[in-house]
Amino acid sequence: NAGVTQTPKFRVLKTGQSMTLLCAQDMNHEYMYWYRQDPGMGLRLIHYSVGEGTTAKGEVPDGYNVSRLKKQNFLLGLESAAPSQTSVYFCASIPGTRNEKLFFGSGTQLSVL
Amino acid sequence: QQPVQSPQAVILREGEDAVINCSSSKALYSVHWYRQKHGEAPVFLMILLKGGEQKGHEKISASFNEKKQQSSLYLTASQLSYSGTYFCGTEGAGNMLTFGGGTRLMVKP
Predict the structure, then answer these.
(1) Closest CA to A91 of A111, A75, A68
(2) Where does chain B show beta strands of DSSP type E?
(3) Are B14 and B107 in contact (CB under 8 A)?
């Protein structure tokens, strides 16, 4: 059982470039979340999904887009990367009922130069 | 809106106790607590449901006051392994799960 897998683990972008981060879970979880964590800071919610085909904005959605075409995958896109988007990105999932713990991926370190 | 954690940092000697607080301005369905070591993903500690529940995990326990929208994490007889950053996560309406800014805990020998 792989759990929650994030790819890539590291990436360096130039300002203005685009990229997609992939989050895949093999636990048949309904809810999936994307967070960013800046150095010394907490986790801030970017976007989340409560099921296949659904997405919703979190606390800091600007500059990001997401898609949940398949239940097991949650994609985070940066259309035009900016240095302010340099961060560690964590994906997480929950089975689908309330009061369940988050299963986190190992994170993606993204640097935008 | 993010929950607010206090204190922001704590330094303890082994064997000492600590309390970390988490408060929210919105109605909560549940409160999560996680611990994160440097360079790693957060690790689940416990989850509390609305209803004033108190839970324990070895020497770490927590309480949740639904009416006050507050939760506290209690660390007793701290060990070196307790060092890290502690985050509370709160779930409000719409299944949004947001986290506080974290409390850095350092336990010294």
Answers:
(1) A75
(2) 4-6, 9-13, 18-23, 30-36, 43-49, 54-57, 60-65, 70-75, 84-91, 97-99, 103-108
(3) yes
Find out whether B98 and B5 touch, Cβ atoms under 8 Å: no
**Interchain CB contacts (distance < 8 Å): A and B:** 61
Chain A contact present for B41, CB below 8 A: yes
In chain A, which residues have their Cβ closer than 8 Å to the Cβ of B42? 43, 90, 102, 104
Q: How many angstroms away from the CA of A16 is the closest CA of chain B?
A: 27
Contacts of A89 in chain B (CB under 8 A): none
> What is d(CA A33, CA A49) in angstroms, rounded to the nearest whole number?
6
User: Which among A17, A34, A16, A37 has a CA at the least distance from the CA of A25?
Assistant: A34
Distances (CA, A) of B109 to A77, A105, B75: 45, 32, 16
- Six-digit token pair at A79? 């259309």
- Model confidence pLDDT, tens digit, residues A31-84: 999 999 998 889 999 999 999 999 999 999 999 999 999 999 999 999 999 999
- Asked whether the beta carbons of residue A35 and residue B100 sit closer than 8 angstroms, the reply is no
Tokens of A108: 């993606």
Residues in contact with B1: Cβ distance below 8 Å, sequence separation at least 6, in sequence order: A59, B24, B25, B26, B98
Contact by Cβ (8 Å): A25, A4: yes
